[in-house]
Amino acid sequence: MSKQYNAFCSSRRTFALLAGILIAAVFSWVPAERLGASTTPIKRPDQIVILSTTDVKGKTSPCGCHIPKGGFSRRAAFADSLRSEYAQMVIVDCGGWFPEGDEEYMEVAAFQADELARSGADAVGIGSRELRYGLGFLRAVLAHSHAPAVSANLVDRTTGRLVLPPYRIVKAGGVTVGIFSLLSEHMDRGPARDSLTITDPLDAAHRAVGEMRARGATVIVLLANTGKVDAEDLVTSIDGVDALVAGWNVPLLQRGRTVKGTVTNYGGEQGYYVGVTHLVLGPDLRVTSGDNMTYVLGPEIPEKTEVLARVKAFEDAFDDHQRERQKERAAAAAAAAGETNETPSHYVGAEVCGRCHAKQYAQWQGTAHARSWRSLVDQKKESLPECLTCHVTGYQKPGGFATAADAGRLGGVQCESCHGMGTEHDSWPARNTVVAEATCRGCHDEANSPEFKFDVFRPHVLHETPAVLPPLPARAKSPTIPGANH
Ligand code: HEC
Ligand code: HEC
Ligand code: HEC
Ligand code: HEC
User: Fold this and answer.
1) In the predicted structure, residue 32 carries a pLDDT above the cut 60
2) Which architecture characterizes domain 345-481 according to CATH?
3) 110 Cα to the center of ligand 3, angstroms
4) Residue ID of nearest Cα to ligand 1 atom 39
5) Cα 126 to Cα 209, 289, 370, distances in angstroms
């Protein structure tokens, strides 16, 4: 374990906090005696720390299911804790912070920019996701938020000029830091593709690094929206980049590497994680060495109250807007169905099934599936398409759940979620229906139900409960942290 990391853990409080958030899998523990040894230096003038995120994909709060990770409020608490140890710190986001949804999610993109700016981000990179709603929208969002966006190779084709400042030079304590961002030439440029050019990243990097050095920057950080391989190629081909944050489909690595003198970070997506890069400075404030770790923002991290309040207010309003849109969509769908007068296969709702299958109905009502609409309401996420697909029956399908008004009839994971549309009923007994594992996995996927095992979960949904039930994994508990008893 490095000296810097040891220093990072110099206070008991920070230590306890960080102990909880290291990714459990590949973690080697700090020997206790070394902890006691370094309690005095607090503000570390010999180091600079870079706190980074990448590919947040519009995520604003911890994910809904299983072990909730991430969110702005935890990121803010983490940043505060780090800042209490290190006077010299910069906050960056590599890029890819726009959501992946359609136009309905544009307000999430705007909120991301506002929060990035409020979080004190020193520089924000631009990836392909930020171009997906067009250049005009991006410009408006940046103007409104004052988020410090940079991009050294995104060029307006008509004027031949850069769309954004290529880099930012910021002061962190006594250190002058230059931060620039690049896009891969292969990126989709979104609806503005005809008016945008992405120039050669290597040329742009040479120019940006030269200019920043000339303007006194002794520490240079690259935010590369290029994928892992191209990012590593870039820092091998240019001198003078001290730290790299690699974004765009980059697999998470708990520890960064040093690639030809550049400390690299592969930080994971969706705001679930933060990268922490320590750079050790020589007397001339140039970087002599460094290392990088990625931390998961798990339930152990406190949520900064004021940020939490802002996020909650935004999300509640967003949920309300989605409900309005849902109604409009449902009305349009009803009108379209009325025109064609098509009534093929459709959903009928559990109550109808219960009329003949009273025993199964009674058993089902006692299951988590019957409550799954409630779980969304409790979090005020009951209008978000991204949650509804798995928590109600037949979302946006014929006869299925369309708006909150359908909750009584189609809320929850019902009979038809497993057995199929009720109108197909006549074919089932002949087929001797078996609910396939794949049906469960349509919802019990890696992200939302990572511990799903068919053999263990299936007995819990059978309508005749077996005498011996294999225990389900504990829900939404903190991940098991080796050595967390320190
Ligand atoms: C009008 C009464 C009635 C209604 C309503 C009804 N069922 Fe049935 N269901 C039956 C009968 C009768 C059978 C055939 C039972 C048999 O042959 O053992 C059957 C068979 C089934 C089977 C197959 C059982 C097997 O042995 O493979 C399933 C599954 C099933 N129903 C589910 C549903 C679901 C889900 C709904 C609601 C969408 C529903 N049923 C609505 C009467 C009904
Ligand atoms: C349409 C999506 C969907 C399908 C299909 C589905 N589930 Fe689920 N399941 C859920 C949701 C959502 C929950 C969480 C409900 C809640 O508490 O809000 C859940 C919860 C459960 C639970 C309770 C877990 C716990 O920790 O309490 C079990 C057990 C389960 N499902 C088993 C199954 C099995 C077995 C299948 C296939 C035969 C299946 N599910 C199919 C969505 C689905
Ligand atoms: C791909 C399907 C899927 C999506 C999308 C999904 N969920 Fe779930 N959710 C599940 C399943 C499956 C479970 C049960 C997990 C388990 O027990 O293994 C679950 C469980 C939950 C629970 C119960 C957790 C607990 O411990 O009580 C909540 C709350 C929840 N989801 C909220 C949400 C919210 C909010 C969203 C949208 C942001 C969402 N879910 C999106 C499938 C999904
Ligand atoms: C989570 C998935 C799931 C849900 C939800 C579900 N079932 Fe089933 N159902 C099963 C499984 C699993 C079986 C056992 C046979 C099999 O493996 O397909 C089964 C079997 C049945 C059978 C055959 C007789 C029996 O009891 O085994 C009927 C009838 C039936 N279900 C009706 C219903 C009705 C009615 C509802 C809603 C009130 C419902 N099911 C909800 C998964 C589900």
Assistant:
1) no
2) Orthogonal Bundle (1.10)
3) 26
4) 353
5) 18, 28, 43
